[in-house]
Design a protein that fits this description.
about 55 residues, mainly alpha, 2 helices
Length: about 55
Amino acid sequence: MDGFWYFIADFFEGIFKAVPFIGLWFNKMMIVIGFIAFFLWLSYMSKQKEEQKFD
């Protein structure tokens, strides 16, 4: 199980080392991906049309 977490840590360390070379484009790309994911989630939830019951 430790190998899995070390893999994730190495992966993100590699990304963060590359970020200064990319500059602000990385931040803008992450914002765009976040907005796209948000609107996809909204459209998915609107298609479900199931009401949640609050007790």
